[in-house]
Amino acid sequence: MKKDSNTDGYLHILKYISLFGGVQGLNVLIGIIRNKFVAMLLGPQGVGLISLFNSTTKLIGDSTNFGISMSAVRNISEDYDREDEEKLTEDIALVRSWSLLTALSGMFACIVFSPLLSRYTFSWDGHTLHFILLSPCVALTALAGGELAILKGVRKLRSLAAISVYNVLAALVLTVPLYYFFSNAAIVPSLVLMALVQMILTIMVSYRLYPLRISFHRSFLGKGWGMIRLGTAFVLAGILGSGAELVIRSYLNNVGEIETVGFYNSAFMMTMVYAGMIFSAMETDYFPRLSGANSLKFTFNQIVNRQIEVTLLLISPLLALFLLFLPQLILFLYSDKFLPSLSMAQVLVLAMYMRAMRLPVEYIPLAKGDSRSYLFLESSYDVFLVLLVIVGFRQWGIFGAGVGVAVAGFLNFVFVYVYAYSRYHYRLSSSVMFYAAVQLSIGFLVFLCVRSESDWLRWGVAVVLCVISTIVSLSVLKSKAGLWEALVSKVKNKFTRHAKD
């Protein structure tokens, strides 16, 4: 029987967000070190080649893998929570069978379309052989994606964290020497090697838990159509999202200058990627738990509301501090040439508050297996985003683009909540609304202070507000999750073990 106490629920969420948040931070740090070496060894041309090869093979992979790495989690999670070992074993075999099929189809597509990829990705047609040699990357990534979905579904979260860290460490240790000795000639072999390492690390854990079993019988594969439909919706939503970003960047490049796209991209990276690491950490644990409880109305609502509470309370002090030190972060991560992106980045930080409240609700259609609703909600946001960024940029330049993203996020939150309220009977809890009101108010006041030219407001009032936000979050999390009691218990256990030794 699983525990469902208030303390266990909050403490579990906090524990795994902290675990994967730390892992994401470590991965980013190792990635920054590796990118620095790669930039020094290969220069802009080599970095550009890696980027183009990666983005092209990713496009092929995303177009042929049917989103199994996401949709399979739902089926596996339901079996795991029901403790139905026979169905779990069957669904794992189903995921592996479909993953192998998509891996082979993706590799075949990469080989067949390699002349077109070479012609349209580069200004000169000389990389056909490179794309043929990169085709195993597509297959290896698809196979690893299926195994990662299995590990998520059966809640092997510490194993997933270890795989993630070992993967980026291997990329640093194995590829940098190759680039040092062979320069640009090592790019294609290194990309294949990285994909192979990721797959080996994943199957070492996954196959030990569940030995390999696959079947290509038509009746057996037919059981996976629900998974494929949901995965296809996920892929289409991703393509629409990428298309929306492409439209925005093309618009900024046409009506502004190429530097404008650079400012937009740097502000986006600063907030949506670096500050958004906690959201990536959330997905690894949250989606499998939500999928496992999708038929339990009260528990389902409780899981969503608790996730919003913990995510909001964790990220709010970080966002306030992020607002305070954004100019210094831009100088550290980029240079003073990117300071014009500051105003947009500041507004995007405010948008992150709404994202913390919206993202857990957006997972509801996926957990329910409602592919049409998920695709509808995601495409609606893409429309909001494109229209409002264009309108905002026309009115206030790069700052207006940030306003457009923030307003699109707010409108999408309202739209998603109303849809979830009417279709799935989801209800925001009073505690979520109260914590949101408090932390959003603090965040907006910090935003006004850092936008002021007064040093007293910026380094006086804003700092005090950051401290208040931190105290509020810590006090609530302490009372909700029993953090102090858990810490005392851990210390006591350590002392007890030492005394026995």
Describe the structure.
- InterPro entries: Poly_Biosynth_Transport.
- Its main location: membrane.
- It is a multi-pass membrane protein.
- It is found in: Cell membrane.
- The protein is an all-alpha fold and 501 residues long.
- The chain has two domains: 16-216, no CATH class; 233-501, no CATH class.
- The protein is 87% helix and 0% strand.
- The chain has 18 helices and no strands.
- α3 (85-112) packs antiparallel against α5.
Number of helical stretches of at least 4 residues: 18
Structural class: mainly alpha
The succession of helices and strands, N to C, reads: HHHHHHHHHHHHHHHHHH
Round the mean pLDDT to the nearest integer and report it.
84
What percent of the residues sit in helical stretches (DSSP H or I)? over 70%
Q: Could you tell me the number of beta strands?
A: 0
Distance between the termini: 34 Å
Domain module tally: 2
Note poorly predicted spans: 1-8
In short:
The chain contains 18 helices and no strands.
Helix and strand arrangement:
Blueprint: H1 6-64, H2 68-82, H3 85-112, H4 114-121, H5 128-153, H6 157-182, H7 187-209, H8 218-221, H9 225-255, H10 258-275, H11 277-292, H12 297-324, H13 326-333, H14 342-368, H15 371-424, H16 430-451, H17 455-481, H18 483-500
Helix pairs in contact: 1-3, 1-5, 1-6, 1-11, 1-12, 2-3, 2-5, 2-9, 2-11, 3-5, 4-5, 5-7, 6-7, 9-10, 9-15, 10-14, 11-12, 11-14, 12-14, 12-16, 12-17, 14-15, 14-16, 16-17
